[in-house]
Write a structure and sequence with these properties.
heterodimer, A: 4-stranded antiparallel β-sheet, 11 strands, globular, B: 6-stranded mixed β-sheet, 5-stranded antiparallel β-sheet
Amino acid sequence: NAGVTQTPKFQVLKTGQSMTLQCAQDMNHNSMYWYRQDPGMGLRLIYYSASEGTTDKGEVPNGYNVSRLNKREFSLRLESAAPSQTSVYFCASSEARLFGGELFFGEGSRLTVL
Amino acid sequence: RKEVEQDPGPFNVPEGATVAFNCTYSNSASQSFFWYRQDCRKEPKLLMSVYSSGNEDGRFTAQLNRASQYISLLIRDSKLSDSATYLCVFPLGGKLIFGQGTELSVKP
């Protein structure tokens, strides 16, 4: 029962470095999402994908890129990390139509940018 | 006014108490909402879905007050295991908007 799997779980970067957060789901869901969670801010949507090959910007897309190469995987890339991107990142997926029904979240990736 | 606002708490209550959280929203067109539970440093998980005026599931009751534009979550007979952060979630403009969460701590 893997559900949604995110890697890495922890990462420390220096300003300007790049990295990719990986996310995979084994529930055959069409819709996938990337959120970030900061203290006092709630979860904010970075990017989402309604289906394989399609992606759209959420509330806070600046500084990020995403890739949905197949139905299972949805990756989030930071091209030039900044301290403001220090956060906890959650990948999620849903079976129903985009933003409908229950979201299933991964365990989160804790990123620190120095 | 933020689209969704929650009292961050913490709410500190004794075991067995009844506690209620409110979540105010600014979009009166919302027809449904959700409560998610998030344990410390873990991922959010769906607690309740509400598609009309309210829903009840065991010790948990969620209600929608459209006139005053808030939703509430009532927990009866609180357990130690209820300690968590509770997030209200609304669909808005084709997206899901999360509140910042209300922290509940149930003490023995």
